[in-house]
Design brief:
The complex is a heterodimer of chains A (370) and B (320). The longest helix of chain A is centred in the middle third of the chain and has 39 residues, at 226-264. The model of chain A has no long low-confidence stretch (mean pLDDT 84). In chain A, helix 6 (164-178) packs across helix 9 (226-264) and helix 9 (226-264) crosses helix 11 (279-302). Chain A has helices at 2-29, 36-39, 46-55, 64-75, 124-159, 164-178, 181-195, 216-224, 226-264, 267-274, 279-302, 305-308, 311-316, 322-332, 335-363. Chain A has 15 helices and no strands. Chain B has 320 residues and is mainly alpha-helical. In chain B, 67% of the residues lie in helices and 0% in strands. In chain B, helix 2 packs across helix 13. The longest helix of chain B is centred in the middle third of the chain and has 37 residues, at 108-144. The relative contact order of chain B is 0.15. Classes of the chains: A mainly alpha (370), B mainly alpha (320).
Chain lengths: 370, 320
């Protein structure tokens, strides 16, 4: 088992390197490139510009050498503080790409440094970290809710096939599967905001009552009044979570239903029934357990949603999460933030693929993984 | 696989497909012994006709395509033809503007009707680009196998490992420049990997079929075997996923344009029609966001129903 996991991880490494290179190339191809916003910034002096460019090995040139140097600076292979071939060495004198403890440098994503935002001047890692809490509050709540509802509804629909419930669920899935998420969000905002005045339609907390969500001050304030904080966040969660849950139940309940029907049609279910086992045991023990195997994989593959899946919902509900940060960064051409978020989201996708495979191998003893 | 040379009666079809024939609904002529064999397409069309939701979906889709083609002729959109605004942020639906107006006084109805053309075009062109790449890549990988296969599939893995919406937003903003044609190309270039995987899987199984062996034995070339012999047999699932690509592209365009990162505001699409609507929802102006969004939703529902009917028509055994 451990050997299998290790082999899968080794297989994912070239893929992740590919993702890194691809996202870098994408930003290089963009008009202006990562150096553009710095050079065209009219608010800073020439000296500041040069210092900034030198910090990241940025150059206003597209020849292959300078592009490679920029990649070296972003990844941490090169130490931009030095000149020429000395760039391969850190201030400590060791090869720069090594971890700092082994004499390497401290810049670049190899050392956990995703760069600095051109817009705010703050480290990208810190900015993403602040937004992560908001995104995870939203996505984890939504994922848990929709997966459990989809499993219950899907299984029930499969047991009572062609019943009124089954047919309503089918119709429901068809409709909500087709609705554009952002439009559903807008309609919910209108219904529960301006029309009924029932629920807040944007943000994580009431802006007047709390410091900016995600900031250290907020966590201090929330620590002093934890119950207020939870209630307020909960109230703000209702609409965005409902949007995500409605759309995703639609697809997942169909999947669970199909999987359960498949299991119910198996020979061992017929055998169990023929033996005279009570229906509850047949459905609950024989069919359900086997029906859950593909569902587990499916949920595993849905996990990247936790990081990058709520971009649409976050936009509509002014939710200060990572998706919103991404959209703001696109508008500001904040290339380091964009590359950082793409790396994190891709990492989540690859990790989820691995997890789904491993989970499947664990829950299904028929899978031989070596 | 149903043998197309056999005469098919509803009973035969029922045996072949495992579906109980609906005797009363069947046509009288179905019971006559017909000497003319039905092609696979005719069989598929038969099953499609019986799928009620698919017919509803097709009607919706055809109405939308009709709007896309003739709408701008019947209700032309004139940027300067502004209606009187009775409330801040636009007038509610009334006799002069059936769907109400936006904050400038443009009629939402005209925006929806005229937006259909570009929105549907984005969906169709994206589908054509994505399907051509996906089918070619998948067919090459599935037919040749070996090194070609692993190289192409690593490429597919790589693209699937990227967060799709992130990349779409970056590409649309930095390379799209508000031009619908560029946006179609971007969507097309990013939408094919799923289809390539599907086609590869189909070709891997088709490759083992006897008629391929027979074709090889009589000396038919690889290219001809792939595209003349195998592709027609893989067409069903390909058509189904092509319809889904159309639906996805329409929603994607709407979302990207809604964020003002997509098509420029002077080109009317369903996305640009509602792009500034959110700010006015607080004033109670629901119609501005509602009607363009409803058009998108209807189109997507129609396409999905159609896709479902097509899936059953081409592969009657795949019913869930």
């Amino acid at each position: 088992m451990i050997k299998y996991i290790l082999r899968r991880i080794v297989g994912l490494i070239p893929l992740f390197i590919g993702v890194i290179i691809l996202s870098f190339i994408l930003m290089q191809l963009a008009p202006g490139g990562p150096a553009g916003p710095v050079i065209n910034n009219t608010r800073i002096t020439q000296e500041q510009k040069e210092r900034w460019l030198a910090r990241w090995c940025l150059e206003d040139s597209k020849d292959i050498g300078s592009v490679l140097r920029q990649f070296g600076g972003w990844s941490g292979i090169l130490n931009c503080q030095n000149e020429g071939s000395q760039q391969f060495f850190s201030a400590q004198g060791g090869l720069n790409f090594l971890p700092a403890a082994l004499g390497g440098g401290d810049n670049g994503f190899l050392h956990g440094d995703l760069g600095t935002s051109i817009d705010t001047g703050r480290p990208v890692g810190e900015m993403i970290g602040e937004r992560a809490a908001a995104t995870l509050f939203l996505t984890v709540t939504a994922l848990i809710l929709w997966v459990s509802i989809a499993i219950v509804a899907g299984v029930y629909a499969a047991i009572r096939r062609y019943s009124l419930f089954d047919q309503s669920l089918t119709l429901f899935s068809y409709i909500f599967f087709s609705l554009p998420t952002f439009w559903l969000g807008l309609m919910l905002i209108f219904a529960f905001g301006p029309a009924l005045h029932l629920l807040p339609t944007g943000g994580v907390v009431e802006v007047r009552d709390w410091p900016a969500f995600g900031s250290p001050q907020f966590w201090v304030a929330a620590g002093q009044r934890p119950i207020d904080a939870i209630l307020d966040i909960g109230k703000h969660l209702i609409l965005p979570v409902t949007t995500l849950v409605l759309v995703n139940i639609a697809a997942d309940s169909r999947f669970v239903r199909a999987s359960m029907l498949e299991a119910l049609n198996q020979d061992y279910v017929r055998t169990a029934k023929a033996k005279g086992l009570p229906g509850r045991t047949v459905v609950g023990k024989h069919a359900l357990r086997n029906a859950m195997l593909p569902v587990v994989t499916n949920v595993g593959l849905e996990l990247p949603f936790l990081v990058s899946g709520a971009i649409v919902t976050e936009t509509i509900f002014s939710w200060p999460g990572m998706g919103r940060l991404f959209i703001d960064a696109v508008g500001e051409r904040d290339y380091y933030v964009l590359m950082g978020l793409i790396l994190i989201a891709s990492f989540a996708i690859l990790a989820a693929n691995l997890l789904a495979d491993v989970l499947y191998a664990i829950v299904d003893p028929r899978i031989r993984y070596d | 696989m149903t043998d197309p040379t056999r005469t098919v009666s509803p009973i035969d079809e029922a045996i072949a497909t495992g579906i109980r024939p609906d005797i009363e609904a069947a046509n009288e002529e179905d019971f006559e012994v017909s000497l003319k064999p039905l092609s696979q397409w005719q069989l598929a069309w038969r099953r499609f006709r019986r799928h009620r939701l698919a017919l509803v979906g097709s009607v919706i889709v055809f109405i939308m395509i009709f709007l896309a083609v003739l709408g701008p002729v019947i209700w032309p959109y004139d940027r300067l033809d502004l209606r009187p605004i009775t409330r801040p942020g636009g007038s509610p639906p009334s006799a002069t503007a059936v769907f109400g107006t936006d904050n400038l006084g443009r009629s939402i109805f005209e925006l929806v009707v005229n937006g259909a053309r570009l929105s549907v075009a984005v969906g169709l062109v994206t589908m054509v680009i994505a399907t051509s790449i996906g089918v070619t890549v998948g067919a090459l990988a599935g037919f040749f196998g070996g090194r070609v296969d692993s190289l192409l599939m690593r490429l597919v893995d790589l693209i699937i490992a990227l967060p799709f919406l992130f990349i779409v937003l970056v590409a649309a903003t930095f390379f799209g420049q508000g031009d619908p044609r560029l946006l179609m190309i971007i969507f097309g270039l990013l939408s094919w990997p799923g289809l390539a995987r599907l086609v590869r899987a189909l070709f891997l199984s088709l490759r083992e079929q006897e008629y391929v062996l027979a074709a090889k034995a009589v000396g038919v070339g690889n290219f001809r075997i792939t595209f003349r012999h195998m592709l027609p047999n893989a067409l069903g699932p390909i058509i189904v996923s092509a319809t889904l690509i159309v639906a996805n592209a329409i929603v994607l365009e709407a979302f990207v344009s809604f964020l003002n990162f997509g098509i420029r505001a002077t080109d009317v699409t369903w996305g640009t029609a509602l792009s500034n609507a959110q700010g006015y929802l607080v004033l109670g102006n629901w119609w501005w966001a509602f009607f363009p969004g409803m058009a998108i939703a209807l189109m997507v529902i129609g396409i999905n129903f159609m896709g479902d009917g097509l899936r059953d028509a081409f592969d009657p055994r795949a019913r869930a």
